[in-house]
Amino acid sequence: MQKQRLIRPWIPQHNRTTKMEERPRSADEYHTARWTRESRDFRRLHPLCQRCESKGIIRASEVTDHIVPSEVHGDFWDRKNWQALCKRCNIEKGNEDKKLIQQFRNENRKDN
After folding, report:
1. pTM value?
2. How far apart are the two ends of the chain, measured CA to CA in Å?
3. pLDDT digit of tens for each residue in the chain (112 aa)?
4. Which residue among 2, 35, 75, 96 is least crowded, i.e. fewest CB within 10 A of its CB?
5. With contact defined as beta carbons under 8 Å apart, do 52 and 90 qualify?
6. Nearest 5°: CA angle at 95, between 72 and 34?
7. 59: containing domain
8. What is the C-alpha to C-alpha distance for residues 74 and 68, in angstroms, rounded to an integer?
9. Domain assignment of residue 68, yes or no
10. How many domains does the chain contain in total?
């Protein structure tokens, strides 16, 4: 028996598809078998979230993150620029990175 979706008219409907369509696509390297393999291998070597660990919190790593955003750093595959993070810390850092990337893009526009 298929479960029916309960309609709740008092809750606004969010169209996730629209939100994802507006989101800029991440770098092509993130969508490769090489990144999947190397990211997984890196997290095996670094099983704990490095940000949480620095605060005395023990939490498993779930993603491999670029310490300096790859667009700014310039070398996507430089493992010295990688860190293992939990999803929560990755979201927080991603929000911080957006500001840094925007600043980098603005400075590059001025130079051109």
Report:
1. 0.74
2. 61
3. 566 777 777 777 655 555 556 667 788 999 999 999 999 999 999 999 999 999 999 999 999 999 999 989 999 999 999 999 999 999 999 999 998 888 888 888 876 5
4. 2
5. no
6. 55
7. 30-111
8. 9
9. yes
10. 1
